[in-house]
Amino acid sequence: MSRVGRKPIPVPGKTTVKIEKNNVVTVTGPKGTLTQQFSPDMSIAQDNGEVVITRPTDQRHHKAQHGLTRALLSNMVTGVSEGFSQRMEIHGVGYRAEKRGETLVLQLGKSHPVEFAPPNKSMGFDVDKDGRGFVISGIDKCEVGELAAVIRKSRPPEPYQGKGIRYAGEFVRLKAGKSGKK
User: Fold this and answer.
1) Final residue of a structural domain among 63, 81, 99
2) pLDDT in tens, 7-42
3) Is residue 152 situated within a structural domain?
4) pTM, whole model, 2 decimals?
5) Where is the domain boundary, 55, 81, 107?
6) Interval 132-172: pLDDT, tens
7) Is residue 182 situated within a structural domain?
8) N or C: which end of the chain has fewer CB within 10 A?
């Protein structure tokens, strides 16, 4: 069996998992509700406060679906109970972030400020006091990661001075500039 797929998913106390026809799973928790449809080949069952996923055969595509289904369902349970967040850092003179209402406004050395609105109600931004960092938080891990990638793409770190938006802890390898006169 798949090492990932065979692990049962523990369901926290305030979280409920509802399994419907065609493997449509709805997970409800203190932070919100997520619904997703999984492959009809996988069988999803709930017992004793845990969710267990089993596959019909040991074929290659069933093995892949087994681990994927378990990982996605585990992320749904974690998202509605704890949530996910991605920390971003801004490097560069004059580069900064601020929050206006629910919108994230970035000054990135362009002629205009770049604004990002949260795609849904379950997502939000928290900006540091100095404006050099911010956190994207939400209940859907895929949406948090996608929004972080889109924001980073608006001004990726450049390789000579390292200015731009990067993930917290990301290492940007700097290139040597022009050599000076001899």
Assistant:
1) 81
2) 999 999 899 999 999 999 999 999 999 999 999 999
3) yes
4) 0.89
5) 81
6) 999 999 999 999 999 999 999 999 999 999 999 999 999 99
7) no
8) C
